[in-house]
Amino acid sequence: MSRLELRFLLSAAAAALLPLxxxxxxxxxxxxxxxxxxxxxxxxxxxxxLATVLEARIETERRVLTALCTVGGNPYRTxxxxxxxLAELDAxxxxxxxxxxxxxxxxxxxxxxxLPRVPAGSVRRDAWGEPxxxxxxxxxxxxxxxxxxxxxxxxxxxxVPRGITARLYGPQNALLASSDLSEVLTGSPxxxxxxxxxxxxxxxxxxxxxxxxxxxxxxxxxxxxxxMVLLLLFALAASxxxxxxxxxxxxxxxxxxxxxxxxxxxxxxxxxxxETGPEEARLAIRAFNRMAKAQAARTETLAEAVKARTRExxxxxxxxxxxxxxKTRFLAAISHELRTxxxxxxxxxSTLLSPDVIWRPEDxxxxxxxxxxxxxxxxxxxxxxxxxxxxxxxxxxxxxIPMELSTWLKELEPRLRELAPAHPLTLVLPPEPVRVIxxxxxxxxxxxxxxxxxxxxxxxxxxxxxxIATNEESAVLFVEDRGPGIPDAIKARVTEPxxxxxxxxxxxxxxxxxxxxxxxxxxxxxxxxxxxxxGLRVVAHLPREKRDAGTDRG
Length: 554
Hints:
The protein is of the alpha+beta class. Helix content is 53%, strand content 18%.
């Protein structure tokens, strides 16, 4: 059980028990006062009833004796009559008209005997230890004295309700009767603390005391309180399991929402929460799940975007590094390509100008021819660099004119053979004229680069074919060799600037790139194809010249 569930359960128990305890406390006090008032009334009624009965019985004895004193004749007969009429009368002494007589119910008195002289209203014990009350009645004829047994009257104390103690005290505060048998046996009252007390004087020094102990009065209420506590504990124990379930159903959604919020704070996407608890909690969880799902989708989208961007950056970095490496190789190659013709030009020029040697005319002419070739080579390389720079800036200008490719290519044959002197070169020309609109200088650069590239990257002695073909839409200018070809893995990259693959042949790495730029500038395209039997075929497609029907420009 979580702390939130425990707090909720304790709060619910406190909210349920506190009003009950408050009501019970108020009710307890009300019932306590009610019991006190009822007990007080009961004690007062008991005291009043006992006093009334005692006084009535004593008054009855007194009235009978008074009547006998008034109408009696013979004192002895009067005494016998008194004993016969009054069952509680134990002994009587009659003095009428100067004559005297005494009689007793249980004792034989000799003639002329007198009763003990004790004050009227006093209580004494007889031979059997029973309390007797001395009553004296005076009349015009004389006086009657009698000892009345109090036991029959005191038996009323046994009828006192349970929980109430009634006591009768005589003169000198002597205990005459009590509803507590132990007090009767000991002859002395036992102390009772915290009791409701009612006292009533009966005359002649008699006093009636009625008590009700508070503990006895509150015993039913305390039993009810104990039962109430047990009932509350039982109800609390019985409601513990459903209370725990209710607390869990109410607090578990809050705990899960808090855990989900902590996951959001930590930058994580929490899993979908189970919709439990009351309707409000389910609505909150449903909204949280929608938010988590949307956040998960945004996170996934962002992650995919980051991955895609990372791949793009990695590819761009790879391309940039490849371009950097290619440029490094290009600078090294172009430095070599520039230095070689310059070295030859410088060397042969210095040789011709040497004052120590007189060269024969044919030797001097050969030196000049070599210088011219190296100058042409240098010029061709510089033009390639310039063309590439213009194409990179989008400034490769064309001066197109109508051309017939077969005648143009036939005129270039000697120069093409000079570009690849170690390879037998063959021209493949169609029988009909092939007309295009092109820039001759740019087209010359395209053909020279293709032939020079074929001669550089194929073994000496392998043939090179340069030719023209046609289709319905374009003229096809191709250069074909029987070299090792190009692996498929790098075939798509050989037209990239500065790309030289894994080959060790010399070159600037711009030949095919410039050829592609020239073909595309004319509205065509450059394709790299494999030839049957091995080798490479580079094909430049050029748009053909559009002609009107029936018109022949050849």
